[in-house]
Design goal:
With 448 residues, the chain is of the alpha/beta class. The chain is built from ten helices and 18 strands. The strands form three sheets. A 14-stranded parallel β-sheet has the order 3-4-5-6-7-8-9-11-13-14-15-16-17-18. Helix 8 packs parallel to helix 10 and helix 9 packs across helix 10. This is F-box domain-containing protein.
Amino acid sequence: MLLQRKKTTVKIGFFNLEPQVVLSHVCRRWRSISLSYPSLWTSFSHHGCQSSLRSLARLDAYLERSTSRALELWFDFVGDHSENHFILLEKVLPHIKRWKRVTILSGKDNPTFSFLHSICAVAAPNLEHFVLRFHILDSRRDSDLSVDCLEPTIFTNGAPKLQSLTLDCSSLVSLPPLSAITTLRLEAVNLKPVYPFSWLTFLAILSLPSLASLSLVGQVFEHPQTSTAPLITMNNLIHLRTYGHGVLLPLLPHLRAPSLETLNIHCDWFSVNFGTVGEPQAFPSLQSLYLSEVFAGLPQSAWYFVQLTNYATQILISQQGPFESFFAVLQHYQHFPPTAYWTNLKLLIFNMAPTELALIPVLAKFAEGRPKNPLILRIFDGMDRFWRQAEPTQYEALRGLCTIEIMDSADNPLAQGIDWPPGEEVDSNYIYETDDPFDIEPYSPISE
């Protein structure tokens, strides 16, 4: 191929846009070759800002020229107030056996509710990746719209290859077969109302035998009726991330995930009751821990979590108010924790306001108490410059205790979030209208 896709986006306002290359003229020979090469026509996308009529003609051409090849389809109807988007979806229905990766996004003004009836009693034998986000307009009470079972309501004739699924939890009537799911994203981003899974149904989701990657954003399941939860065993879970609402964190002490490698927690808090359910059982395979705007009010809660994650070798801590974080709570209480903790840690990525000079001795204390594994501390350039100038003596002392690596704020390596699941190419810009909620921006200024 002439062009290789790169993970590069252009940010305009609040939106991340994929760069485009437009070929206005090609020679007759190249045109002939391209028209007879079906693999060039297997990936189709429609943006809400595009002309639906133009997309209709383009889709016809793609469907014809791709012959029998598997299809990758992306439809973004957000902001599209015409009725032609229904025709676009109807055109791809006869080709449902060719669907491989399909994304359908819709707003309040143009729900795809009626389209779901067309994909209920059908089979999608080659579908591997499915994203569906839309708003339900229903006259029934919210309580009548809870999700109480995992029986499929779409693709009921089978989707045996479906491994990756993203729903926004307004999609209670759009549940495909989950038997082969390995990656599940239940992400209610700025969505109202949300129709969550019931507590028992959510436990059934956690019991899916093939589930390896789970992402939860917002209140996607109901709080349990009792303060105690059963032991939750997820032998194949490798990647877990959660954003907000304080619902999942209380379950961590009950979770047995021997294969868990990455744990990513954003905008959440440890309650005063966290860690009161017995001895912590550490995740033995944990490698990477990401904590962004995570708070702990009691040192006991913070220390319990440290024991759960003690095997982590890479930790990211991003906090706007550093002394509200559980990391600072640990450092400022004499009895919690012991001298050394996170003893396997090799890399600490720190993203906080550079003006917080009291962080320097806190980090020095943490680095000094480590019995092994030389620590690498990775910070943004703004923090590095400020600390060098404001506290040169303390900063040099810190440099003597660990290796400091500098991140470029202008080319923020955390700006596009953490690839999730790790090792997979994820089209996060195809899911969110604005930024991915797991994006991390530097608190350090780009220029002083």
